[in-house]
TrEMBL record:
Residue ranges annotated for the Aminotransferase class V domain, each copy included: 4-364
Catalytic activity: (sulfur carrier)-H + L-cysteine = (sulfur carrier)-SH + L-alanine
Catalytic class of the enzyme: transferase
InterPro entries: Aminotrans_V_dom, Aminotrans_V_PyrdxlP_BS, Cys_deSase_NifS_bac/arc, Cysteine_dSase, PyrdxlP-dep_Trfase, PyrdxlP-dep_Trfase_major, PyrdxlP-dep_Trfase_small
UniProt keyword annotations, A-Z: Iron, Iron-sulfur, Metal-binding, Pyridoxal phosphate, Transferase
Annotated source species: Desulfocicer vacuolatum DSM 3385
Protein name, per record: Cysteine desulfurase
Enzyme Commission no: 2.8.1.7
SUPFAM superfamilies assigned: PLP-dependent transferases
NCBIfam families per record: FeS_nifS
Pfam families: Aminotran_5
Signal sequence interval, chain numbering: none
Role: Catalyzes the removal of elemental sulfur atoms from cysteine to produce alanine. Seems to participate in the biosynthesis of the nitrogenase metalloclusters by providing the inorganic sulfur required for the Fe-S core formation.
GO molecular function: cysteine desulfurase activity; iron-sulfur cluster binding; metal ion binding; pyridoxal phosphate binding
Length: 386
């Protein structure tokens, strides 16, 4: 049975070109980039190249790129740095639909005495910017918002919000983990102070992250140790993964057009096919303002986990809500914040595509999904009540 992988917002395959670039740095080229000898120094030169490629993807300067261990670390480092840089300010603004890497840290900071404004979204997943702007005050240390949502793909107007934050002298961080490689990101176009990326969402390895820190922004690292990354992140560099990240960013930049055209067309075809062939199905999120690869779709009166199990038997991989929350039977915090009706939220499946998917795969999904949903609905007391 062939696997059809449509769970790319959870993680992606390491691109063959990325792996090829990385492999020598596990074996023959294992030097420490900080060493005085050229054996290590040559690895340092390769890291410099990788840093440039990452910077190019987001139109930054290589000196503004800090390599970390994952997107979650980048988010934590940004938020904690903003607080350390503004010890007198005790307020953070974020949204109700952030990834746990931001949400859980903010909730724990709230317990420590910080004031957190969790800005709500409407039933399309759009941020209430009136509430957001009204919440900005002299005590606000940071606004931290995701660029695009991992579950619905809904894109937030981060550039506009960064401008407003800058006008008030408030630091602005964005979690661009899901936006990167799917839509253009240009930090030179808006006063974004910090921005997080994750390798494994863009065909680089897992355990690789990036934090962009705008030149001039005071950075306070929470990890104390050696002077790597310009004193902004201690620890001997994960050389192979950094080199892989460089290659992945180069590929991501060259695939942006394909994301906007071929991948978008596959997503739209899948969406239209499912809506046409399955009754009582609803797309979650603002249709015209989503990542081109993401489809979150709820099927009334069935359980997402049961759908996933039957899909799995036919070789199709997807998620119910967010990969991080599957395991719990409650609808995800994102769908609940959007007030998606309970019976549709419970039956929500997220398909997330990559450039490795094909239209034939979409046709296959469209062919098998109606049978899967019908089979489950035939057993569902909730469906019989319809
Ligand atoms: N932020 C968002 C929006 C994500 O989707 C994820 C991963 O799912 C992360 C942060 C965390 O990234 P990592 O898995 O590299 O820690």
């Amino acid at each position: 049975m062939k696997t059809i992988y449509t769970d790319n917002n959870a993680t992606t395959m390491v691109a063959p070109e990325v792996l090829e670039e990385m492999l020598p740095y596990f074996s023959e080229l294992y030097g420490n980039p900080s060493s005085m000898h050229s054996f290590g120094g040559n690895v340092g030169l390769k890291l410099k190249e990788a840093r440039q490629k990452v910077a190019d993807l987001i139109h930054a300067d290589p000196g503004e790129i800090v390599f970390t261990s994952c997107g979650s670390e980048s988010d934590n480092a940004a938020i904690l740095s903003a607080l350390a840089a503004n010890p007198d300010k005790k307020h953070i603004i974020t949204s109700v639909v952030e990834h746990p890497a931001v949400k859980n840290l903010c909730q724990s900071l709230e317990k420590e005495g910080y004031r957190i404004t969790f800005v709500p979204v409407d039933n399309m997943g759009r941020l209430d910017t009136d509430i957001l702007y009204a919440a900005m005050d002299n005590d606000t240390a940071l606004v931290t918002l995701m660029w695009a949502n991992n579950e619905t793909g809904v894109i937030f107007p981060v550039e506009e919000i960064a401008e407003k934050a800058a006008e008030k002298g408030i630091l602005f961080h964005t979690d661009a983990v899901q936006a990167a490689g799917k839509i253009p990101i240009d930090v030179s176009q808006a006063p974004i102070d910090m921005l997080s990326l994750s390798g494994h969402k863009i065909h680089a390895p897992k355990g690789m992250g990036v934090l962009y820190v705008k030149k001039g922004v005071k950075f306070h690292p929470f990890l104390k140790g050696g002077h790597q990354e310009g004193g902004r992140r201690a620890g001997t560099e994960n050389t192979a993964s950094i080199i892989g990240m460089g290659k992945a960013c180069e590929l991501a930049g060259s695939h942006l057009k394909e994301m906007d055209t071929r991948v978008r067309a596959m997503r739209d075809h899948l969406e239209a096919g499912l809506l046409e062939n399955i009754p009582a199905a609803t797309v979650n999120g603002e249709k015209d303002n989503r990542l081109p690869n993401t489809l979150s779709i709820g099927f009334d009166a069935v359980e997402g986990e049961s759908i996933l199990l039957l899909m799995d038997q036919t070789g199709i991989c997807a998620s119910s809500g967010s990969a991080c929350t599957s395991g719990s039977l409650d609808p995800s915090h994102v769908l609940m914040a959007m007030k998606v009706p309970f019976e549709s939220a419970h039956g929500t499946i997220r398909f997330s595509l990559s450039t490795y998917n094909t239209m034939e795969e979409m046709d296959h999904i469209i062919e098998v999904m109606p049978g899967i949903i019908q089979r489950l609905r035939d057993m569902s007391p909730f469906w019989k009540k319809h």
